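Exercise 7. Predict the joint structure of the components listed below.
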Amino acid sequence: MKRPRTSRGFAYVLTLILLSIMMTLAAALTNSSALSMASSSNLADAAKARLEAESGMAFMLTRMRGMRLAANTTEATFAANMAAALGARLNGTGNLGGASVIAGGTGVSVPAIATPDGSFSAALIWCGDNRCRLSVTGSARGLTRSVSIELLLTPRNSAAFDYGLASLGPLSVSGNSRILGVNSPSEASVLSATTSDAVAVSLSGSAIVAGDATVVQDPRFLTISGSPSLGGTSNPLLMAQHIHAVAEAPDFPQVDVSALAPLATNRLTTQPPTQTTTLTNIRIAAGLNPTFTSDVIINGIIYVEAPNNVQFAGKAVINGMVVTEPSTQPLSACTLRFGGNVEAYGVETLPATAEFSAIRAQTGTFVLAPGFDVTFAGNFSAINGTIAADKLTFAGTATGTVKGAVIGLSPEATSVGGSVDILVDRQGASPHPAGFVQTFTLTPQGTTYREGGQ
Amino acid sequence: MTCNTRRRGRGGFSLIEAAIATALLALGVTALMLAVQSGTAANGAGRKMTQAVFLAQEIREWALRLPFVDPQDPNNPPGPDGSSPQTFVDDLNDLMNVTYSPPRDAYGSPMTDMTGWSQTITMTWRDPNNLSTTVANGASDIVRVRVNVAFKGQEVLSTGFLAVRRSTE
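Solution:
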């Protein structure tokens, strides 16, 4: 009889079965642990990538702060205009390392910008209804995360209009002159955007600036001599609280007189009459160099071709605006001088007749003189809109209520002296002064922020 | 003789058979124990990393709440004000070179149940035109905030983010 063969070696079989179960469990545990580690590591990397994206969003919004898009910005021109505006701020910087903002389709893309923990890239895409979406993708250790927000394109005047008197060049306020706010002292704030002159803003004598003074980069660009007043005080220690230094110069307006020039339909090619007369919508021929010496009333627009030296020396009343042809000729050949007893009032005072219907719509501007040197002297007085010229001088006893701002358009000096009073009335100002190009600002819309945007 | 030998072989496992089986089982148990130990350690490390990410994000959230410069004195140099940053923080750069243990939440309040954890914050001001370049403290409107999160003195996570001066400041 044979012994049953099944019992022999059964321990090995049992052991091997147990061993394989244990090995399977060990492998499963090891795999689970590795997965857990990878998951944690992935979580950390994802968090880093999201921080990069959020950092990139903060950086982009900072760099785009105050940026303006051209007035002709539409869906069709958005990419080109945005590439130009954003490129002006990013191209050539160390951030892009030689790369550039790229326009394509309905938007632009910003190449990757490196950070100590990764990098981020950005894209701005037109999304209709005067909006674009800024999407920023952060990257860390191969993982990416995106955040995005919509920006609203809002038409807005230049930031120079936020000041009562703003000059691209140095500004001097001296003598007994006063710059006051009609409704609030803040309306009479002044700004000089120059950084190339040793002195940006000079306050001297007994001059009064009711608002604050702003310079670019360094408050030391403002000098004080005599006993002027700034921000309601003559105490130098307290005045310091009313002096501000901004990192970047606010943008100054672009001028476009093309819509105004055709409104001057009566060309003046001979010297103006010496007897009392009334003129309407005149266009002063280049090189005429007229002097208005007698009692004269000018209604509507005065358009001055360049070059020209125009002088108001007698009694004159201007009901409307003065606009010059943009000029690059020497300022000595392009001057406007308001002396004598000149009074000026806005276009809203013109009669509602057909000949003034077009000009009455061009509100908010009194003098728009790109390329001209403009002087207000004598007993000039005005209640009118914004005054802007390449060079501005206020002297004598000139007095004006400016419903808008006084703007020096070039690096030439702006000077306010004598016993001049400039009263700034922002409440009565036109929101869109005629002849100034409105550009678009970009305003983030907080409610549109989202993570994982495209 | 042949018959006796047969009788002995029929009586259960041999000693060698049992010894080998025991050794194999010991090997399996050891491997299983090692796997369990390794898994426990890995899970612990993963949990730590998750906690560290949370603590870094708390600092990020806190930083978002703080003004870029001192609201009382914008010219106050970067760094903690006169009082200790452990008790008073009113702007972002008050957090410079500060270690919090117990760590702080998004409101700056201590998380007392997280003993052993710490958050160390350092800051470098960056050139806006080249984020790789540092500038003097306070000399720009962009700060790189670095957060090192440690558990019982051992670093678990190091990460950073940019903080910028807001348009309203």
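Discussion. The mean pLDDT of chain A is 91.
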